[in-house]
Amino acid sequence: PPSLPEYFVVPSSLADQDLKLYSYSFIGRRMPLWSWNHPNGSALVRMANIKDVLQQRRIDQRICNAITRSHPLRSDVYKSDLDKCLPNIQEIQGAHIKLKQLCVNEPFEETEEKWLSSLENTRWLEYIR
């Protein structure tokens, strides 16, 4: 897909043929994507859901093992389902639109008394926190 980066950081223990094979299993072919690392060797890796629930455990375990083998301290992978605890893109965009309306479209003098509560109701500050 055109929204994916040109280059990927891939654990050295994960073979190219496995990577190609596994890519078809992810929704939107969105393979695990290295996003950030810490000097202690920890990394933040984003991963889409796996389409085939029967293959999910096997593919997930294979990729997590490859990530663990590539970690300098061989630390285990910690996984978190962010879909359950973070807003989706539509919610973030909606909050941004509400924030713009509050800041640009409404005269401040007329809304000064309830401006902070209106700001809170946009949920923008909650999302960017």
Automatic annotation (TrEMBL):
Q: Where is the Myotubularin phosphatase domain?
A: 1-129
Q: Which BP terms from GO are recorded?
A: phosphatidylinositol dephosphorylation
- List, alphabetically, the GO terms of the cellular component aspect: cytoplasm; membrane
The record's annotation in SUPFAM superfamilies points to:
(Phosphotyrosine protein) phosphatases II (SSF52799)
Which residues are listed for substrate binding in this entry?
Answer: N88, I89
List the InterPro entries: Myotubularin, Myotubularin-like_Pase_dom, Prot-tyrosine_phosphatase-like
Family assignment from sequence similarity: Belongs to the protein-tyrosine phosphatase family. Non-receptor class myotubularin subfamily.
> What PANTHER family does the entry give?
MYOTUBULARIN-RELATED, MYOTUBULARIN-RELATED PROTEIN 10
Q: What is this protein called?
A: MTMRA protein
- The source organism is Semnornis frantzii
